[in-house]
Input
Amino acid sequence: MANTQRIAVGAVAYDPKVVTIWEMINDFFRARGIPSDYVLFSNYEAQVEALLSRSIDIAWNTNLAYVRVHRRTGGRCKVLAMRDTDVEFTTILIAGTNTGITSIWDLRGKCLAFGSRDSGQAAILPEYFLAINGIDVQKDVRLTRFDLDVGKHGDTGTSEVAVLEAVTKGEADAGAVGDTYWARTLATGGVDRNKVKPFWTSSPYCHCNFTVLEERYGKDLEEWTEALLQMDYNNPAHRTIMDMEGLKLWVRPQLAGYKPLFDAVEAVGYFNASA
Amino acid sequence: MSGGAACDARSLRLGDGLEVLISRKLETLSPGEILEVAHDDASVEHDLRAWSRFIGHEWKGVRVEKGRFICSIQRGSAQRIIAKPLPIEAVTNIPAIADPRTGFSPRGAIVESGSPEFPFDVLDANLAWNPEAAALYERAVSSQWNAATDILWKTLPRVDPELEQCVCQLMTFLAENEFAALYVPAKWIPRIHPHFVETIMFLSTQICDEARHIEVFVKRALANGNGLQFSSASTERSLKTLLDRENFLEASFLLSVLGEGTFLDLLRFIEAYAPDPVTAEIARRSRIDEARHVQFSIAHMKHAIESEPNFKQRLAAAARERAASLAEVRSVNPLVEESLIVLAAGGLQPDRLPAGVRAVRGLYETMHENRIKRLQQIGFSSEDSEHVSQSHTPNFM
Output
């Protein structure tokens, strides 16, 4: 017996293609008798509020939005699934080739560029990872932040573009970018490797996930998750969705991968400052 | 894990071709196997680790050996192209029923699943393919001629005005018929599945031939300053029925076996009675091309009927239907018939006209007899052949 209760999935519209992706995902679920529908938000904070007030059932969250839900519910939330590409995400530090920077300890006194302050990969986590290596970005480096598309948690990539551009032009000595941005830009010839080189890769952490409230979790959401996990990259109809959403496999949550961000927001006082 | 591969990338970078080298090497491995990439630059570790994850492979780490950096990448499970490989011989496998989802891919190519469905609707090999098409295509290609340089236009003499008028009327008639012979195959090419490539390529040569014929016929009409003459409503009605036909086999039968077949005798007649060598030469060259089209269609009909004898009834019915729809067309454009008579008579002299009339009656007889031979060649009984030939349009094509 198919479900009849609509399952509302929140997603942030960081790009027009989000509509295309979610229309296809709707079709995917409806073909399996699951009445999934999407609700778009302009920013993750609004989406988190909608999840907390139960206006939506599932939130397609960044890692930072997930941490926010976790904090607001005192941990009474659950992760349904994530992309294979959300596992083992890393931050890469890059530097101008003529800066002499070859390790994070060379950053002292240099100009370091970060992306948007709400970007896990290009701001919060690099700040934390440097801190645990003894470098306080507030004191030990000259920090430049590119606060672009705040509210979208770095999804648009514009602040990472700005970081790479600043390092390429020599306006910053070094910068932090996410590894997917770095790989995509490298492969498409967007990096001048004569001017910029990577010199450090962080330990891995997890990125986006489908978050639900523990009290809302039930059979229908488990069925929704089971159906999602059936999406097959070797099925041409599914491949289109998966290529657009940037994954090859939906996977069960790997919650340990969120620990670095939980620690990071504590260490840098992210929520004290911003929310 | 078993097996694996190694490559030396020297100092090649991602974005400069390293991604190509690695992708090609990984392609030769099975999911789970390891590729070791030797590199000169330590920073490649950061690039390759990010890239491997991004593409869907697994980064397994780096070690230093003799000052070089050996990066290990485990091939992921995703197929880059969702398709099953085909042996090289697949190029010669004529599908009994072609799959519209193979699109424009050449026969024998490995087609990725998920390609869109194309609106081809001639998918049955019995309707779309014949075993002589490839050889006829090759002959067509080696028989192409140039309408501008292969015809010795400078040798065209002044022609008696009465005869010139007849030549111009016939050229007008031939050109309009050749437009039909160009448009009909052109209409069918987009509907025939590309895996029947021999047919598609032959029909392409037919279109090319007809274009050249249109060129020479129109040029001949203009060459002595007289110009194009009359196109009759009955001729156009007759030709339109060829374009309107919605079945490839029937359209090819009506156009090429019956129509172009009849034209062979018409062109031979014009060649024989042409008042000048240029007209004779363009009739001769066009006839040779047309004979190829007729031969193709005969081979096509024979193959279809051999594989499905019922097709014979369908073809006969198509000829009957066409005749019924053209019931009001009782004769060829009178200006065309008169032109043939005058040409055969060598002018309007009363003592010569009877010979012209006899020659044209003889032409009609010959056309009928040759149609019957062609119909018998494709498998019609003599009775059916007689009947189908009788019902053929007096417009010739």
Residues 7-86+206-274 of chain A form a domain with the D-Maltodextrin-Binding Protein; domain 2 fold (CATH 3.40.190.10). The longest helix of chain A spans residues 17-30. The radius of gyration of chain A is 19 Å. The CA atoms of residues 122 and 177 of chain A lie 5 Å apart.
